[in-house]
Protein 1
Amino acid sequence: MVSAKVYLKSSVIVLLLCLISCASKKPTTLESEKTIEQPKVIYNNKILIINYLLTKNAQDQKSISLINKINTEGNLKERPKKPLNTTIGDLQYALLDADLKEIETHTLKNPLKKTVEFVNDFGNFEKRILDLDSVQFSIRLQLPENAKHIVISEITNKKPIQLLSTKIE
């Protein structure tokens, strides 16, 4: 025969399991978390590829110059994803409309820091981070219908420093 103590404990466990299994799986949002829905961005059937040269001088000041830009028809398979961890020195680019209002913002890992993997003399893999003085990099994006400018900034511990603004034509 089951003692009253064991019966009481098992009844409480069963009751808790029933309550947990009946709990709602739908995520809840607080009223303060609700935001005004932003207007949806309408994309053209155009891909923009912009090539830049990023250089760093002896004082660690960065400058960017435009190499070329290519407009072509088509659609990208996927949109750029935001990196989970941005650090100081990474680049941020924003697409702006004709009124210089931000449409989209994306980030790039610092192109001047290249990670190289190689096999050492003992047959083991090694990884090194090279600190470059200049590098060419490209930005590929699906062009929103109303995008007129792209602004590239360097992420700092304070406010991002604008490096270059390019007009999209």
Protein 2
Amino acid sequence: MPVLEHVIRNVSIYNILPPSLTTLGASASQNSCSGTNKINKKEKQYKLFEGDMVIVEDMSTNFSSNSSNPSSSSYTASYCMASLPKSSITIEFRHKNTMVFCNTTKIDNLAKYDEVVNEIYTPSPQKKKLRNQSQKYEIVMNIVSDQLGKMRVPLEVRVQDPKEQLRFHDLLVRIRDEFELIDDMYYM
């Protein structure tokens, strides 16, 4: 079946700071070491990658044509279950069409989607317009390290271009809706 690649240009990936390294945690650890210095220093986020994000969408069905009796009710039920679409996605970060940084695990149901992709809304100074909200995404990525092996690390994804950001958001909404529909079909 078809495999689609959706390319989102001009994407940056940043580290996500744990709560212990935020302003409160940093000042508490500094106060315990120095005693008198009360420096309220916040840990910085660092840009880890800049390039293209590619969403690889694989759409298929589980239908096989070698079933026994097409007139039986069990055949009809199994045909319906087998012909349901199976969609899966992976998100990859590439530079010049080569995967250089990381990717996600295969996302093929709603539970995995919710585990891997989270939207973060930051209100803009202009509260009147809903479109001015800054959208960031927290995506759990697979990172391979020689010393530590394979790790799953949440990273913050920012799409710089507003048109690309809207296209990425619309794509995520469509994919999530498809996973919800497919999950509902299995329970009918």
Protein 3
Amino acid sequence: MFKYKNAMISMAVVAMLAACGGGGGGGDDDSSAGGGGTNNPPAGGGTGVVAPTTDQKLAGDFSVANVLAGPVVIGVDDFISKEPRTGADNTGGYGIYGVDPTAATDAPLDTIGLRLAYDNSATAETTSRGRIAFELKDQATTEQEVLQIMIDQVDVTVTPGAGDAPDTVSFAVPSTAKMYVYAKNSAGQEANVSLAADDALVIDAQSTPTVGGDLVTDVSLDVNAAVLAAKGAASGQALSVINSIRNFSAPKETPFEVSLSYSNLSIVRGADPVTVPAVSVTKSGVAGVANGGGLTGYSQFEARAAAVE
């Protein structure tokens, strides 16, 4: 499930998000943007966009019930609202709000994910390989703070339940998967890093079946662990930029735009599809995730009182 140590917020992922665009540009691959990565142009030059995995949609829909950020669950309507939270308990407004200035984390957001219920009835075990893409983007008009993460292979397996038991859904990152990370700080400095993706970066958990019999699955991306891994693979300016991610902040007037996209899931809210138009990792050379099932919303992060090493 979602672990958000810094700001206890959860978002309900059940909104029609097609109108809420998200995502950054794919751009040319440029190893000069920062050290420590392996995102070098392929032999022969050119942008060399890497062909994506199949991104084949699993049969059936996943109904989104909530957004997960840390141990707190928030409704989608809150998450997609640009209005700041007003209540003492952070009710209403942004799906993610606040940062603990004493938390020794490497990203303002610890984990983010969705609570999903599979609406189909599987007749045989089925696995679909897709991608997970995430973007945190400052809406400032000058230099934007940006964090983009993509895991290029994530296997989603649906296993039929025995008898009247509900189907189960599990997520796994194969040993061949890679993670791509791009960051830009408020000074306009950039970093690109690519490295092997660890299975622990994608967190899933099953919970009690709903009244209709669907098993609820929480699936989250461990953003903080991804940033920490990227830091371990970076050097020079790239390392400096990735270290600055922990201090990303945005005022209430211009909260961060946050997008999370699953390339091979058809996600719905009621009868309406819930999609993110495009999420890319800038200058990675990897094709972006277009029209994946997911969400785009808004989050405010308060500046930490002091940097945490």
